[in-house]
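Backbone geometry:

***
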Amino acid sequence: MASPPRSPQPAELEISRQSRILAALSKKVIDLDELRMLAAQGVPDGAGVRSTVWKLLLSYLPNDRALWEQELAKKRSQYEAFKDEFLTNTVGGNSAAGGSEGHGGGNAEHVENGFLDRSEIAQDDHPLSLGKTSEWNQFAEYSEIIEQVDRDVKRTHPDMHFFCGDSSFAKSNQDSLRNILIIFAKLNAGIRYVQGMNEILAPLFFVFRNDPDYKNSNFAEADSFFCFVELLSGLRDNFCQKLDNSAVGIRGTLSKLMQLLKKYDGELQHHLEITTEVNPQFYAFRWITLLLTQEFNFADTIHIWDTLLSDPDGPQETLLRICCAMLILVRKRLLAGDFTSNLKLLQSYPPTNIGHLLYVANKLQ
């Protein structure tokens, strides 16, 4: 009697998925729909696969492989121009921060070591002027941004030697994060820098900096900048303070999460919002604005991001499904809990099987 067919083991499935992704990446013109479908199930670690996949998913690389070299050279050159414009002192030629890749740091609009170049200031521009066009006012605002970026960068994943510590490698990585965030703030005056953006940048930079191909890892800063801009373009309404209370701002997004929960588990939604009065603002604000980077360990975050970045319409809808699945997976504890215990649980989400979480989230489509 023939024995029943053996189910493939997890390691075999991982190898199979990796071979399928490698095959998809080897095509002259990459089928992005196929790549998204494969990546949504998780990109295998190693061989620099994730670095390439994420760049494709974020439209940084064109799907025509023949254009990659030309496009990368153009973007990396453009980033160097941004650094020259926003980070390099125009008078002394020195930069305010060191770093890898000849990284300059920290000053734009003629700021060096906290001082504004007087030659750039109009004679009728008084230091106490509050006018938006005042060089003094812009300098003060910019100094505050640099200080906030500095504080946040130093707090980025303090448990990881990659980001934190006294090594020159960690310090150069911090410089790169700092450079990217300051340039972003200068180029996006409507948003500038919002606390927590460093946490969204960190996974991108980590993946690109760890690409085994030094031709890519050496340009992790430039590549991360453009992918960060693309990622935030679909999320910028969550960071725009003027839209906080609008339908497209963060409150509107939190409302969508509760509507989704009500659709799939009305009892849980009622218990959370009505019975125990646990406002989603208290826990899901962080989940959504920081793309779950603070709720799971770094490796699990990377896995979740494979799925988030695979959504052709941007990560928002997939993110809401994952957040909804997080609530459903702890429903028994939530239904048995009061305001205090439920808030504690959701503000410090318990360890969970990420594969199962993503499976449940996928079922909510």
The longest helix spans residues 135-154. The mean pLDDT is 84. The CA atoms of residues 210 and 217 lie 6 Å apart. The first strand starts at residue 111 and ends at 112.
